[in-house]
Amino acid sequence: MESKFQYDLIVTIVNKNQADLVVEASKQAGAEGGTILFGRGTGIHEQAKLFGITIEPEKELILTLIKKELTETVLESIVAKADLNKPGKGIAFILDVEKVVGINH
Questions:
Q1: Strand, helix or coil at 29?
Q2: Burial letters for 18-50: b for 16+ Cβ neighbours within 10 Å, e otherwise?
Q3: pTM for this one?
Q4: Which DSSP state fits 57?
Q5: Rounded to whole angstroms, how far apart are CA atoms 92 and 14?
Q6: What dihedral do alpha carbons 79, 84, 89, 95 form, nearest 10°?
Q7: CATH 3.40.47.10 fits 7-97, yes or no
Q8: How far, in Å, CA of 57 to CA of 73, rounded?
Q9: Residue 70: helix, strand or coil by DSSP?
Q10: Using CA atoms, how far apart are residues 66 and 30, in angstroms rounded to an integer?
């Protein structure tokens, strides 16, 4: 069963312990929540060394399924609250969602 609304998926990747900030910002802008996944960075600027041992920084990935008409507002709120315009703070991007099932509200 396909939803009658069109949706986008906002994917936000931030440093460890910043996911709650992103979810809070998205809720303030009209989102109903998000899904938080954990990972680690592998970019050229991501590696740090401690006593000569390479440490891969932990990342949090937030998936926010949002109605298209709210996408820009929610993204702007995330960018502002998480300082994503500053280097090293994270990244966010939007994916078109072709079909959605299971949303019951």
A1: coil
A2: bbebbbebbeebebeebeeeeeebeeeeeeeee
A3: 0.83
A4: P
A5: 9
A6: 80
A7: no
A8: 29
A9: helix
A10: 9
CA atoms within 13 A on the CB side of 87: 2
What is the tens place of the pLDDT at every residue in 13-49? 999 999 999 999 999 999 999 999 999 877 656 566 6
Name the residue with tokens 């906002």: 10
- The answer to whether 73 and 30 have CB atoms below 8 angstroms apart is yes
Helices (H) and strands (E) in the chain, counts: 2, 6
Residues 6+ apart with CB under 8 A from 84: 12, 14, 78, 90, 91, 92
What is the average per-residue pLDDT within 94-103?
A: 90
Contact of 35 with 27, CB cutoff 8 Å: no
Determine the residue type at 34. G
DSSP 89: S
Residues 18, 88: contact at Cβ < 8 Å? Answer: no
Report CA Rg, the chain.
Answer: 15
